[in-house]
Design brief:
There is one protein chain. The chain has about 100 residues and is of the alpha+beta class. It has 3 helices and 4 strands. Strand 2 and strand 3 form a beta hairpin. The radius of gyration is 12 Å and the shape is globular. It starts with 7 loop residues before the first strand and ends in a 12-residue tail after the last helix.
């Protein structure tokens, strides 16, 4: 039985026409912070903490960028689809609904 240490992964394409800009990055980080699991987001060879808006912005993810989302921990199975939806959202508007 998996104890939550094996990361679950999903590949997500950035669909926001402004990319993962400041507002979107902080909205994704806020959604990630509601989960206990570790959240890592990768773009090519760069990996950052998905719970840090500043770190997410350093990925410089423009529209069409492919990101790999990795979630490891006790609530990873619940977190993965929510975070994938947040990263792929066409706008930061409405991401608050993912916090409930």
């Amino acid at each position: 039985m998996d104890n939550g240490n094996t990361p679950l992964r999903a590949t997500v394409v950035v669909r926001n026409p402004k990319g993962l800009h400041m507002r979107a990055a902080y909205a994704v980080a806020k959604v990630a912070a509601r989960f206990r699991s570790a959240v890592t987001i990768r773009k090519q060879d760069r990996a950052v903490n998905g719970k840090s808006g500043v770190s997410l912005m350093t990925l410089a993810a423009v529209p069409g960028s492919e990101l790999v989302l990795e979630v490891a921990g006790e609530d990873a199975a619940a977190a993965l689809p929510v975070l994938a939806e947040a990263l792929a959202a066409p706008s930061a508007d409405g991401l608050d609904r993912l916090l409930h």
